[in-house]
Each structure stands twice: as structure tokens, then as C-alpha cells.
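Hi Prof. W.,

I finally got the DUF465 domain-containing protein prediction working! I wasn't sure whether to trim anything, so I left the full sequence exactly as given:
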Amino acid sequence: MTIEARIRELGNRHRNLDDTIQQEMRRPTADATRLRGLKQQKLKLKEEIGQLESRMH
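And this is what came out:
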């Protein structure tokens, strides 16, 4: 898999996590523990994307 393809894949996963986070936050009884975990996953993806992008330059 090329770096560009990996970045696209991670970007898609990042957007999906963002959608999931938004849905959870709209719930009247949002699960704080689940939100924290989702946000941590999203941050890890963002960091990995940043590392891959820096290799391309």
C-alpha cells in the first residue's frame, strides 16, 4: 500500500470516528467513557496521518 493510500484510509477512518463522536454527543445519555475512547482513537489517527504526511515532504 502506498503512503497516499494509507493516508486516505486513515482519513476515512478519522472522519467515521468524528461522525460516531457527533452521534454519541447528540444522545441525551452520552457515554463519557466511550466518547473519551473514541476521541483518543481519533487523535492517534491524526498523529499517524501527520507522521505519514511528513515522510512525503
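Helices lie at 3-26, 32-56. Does that look reasonable to you?

Thanks,
D.
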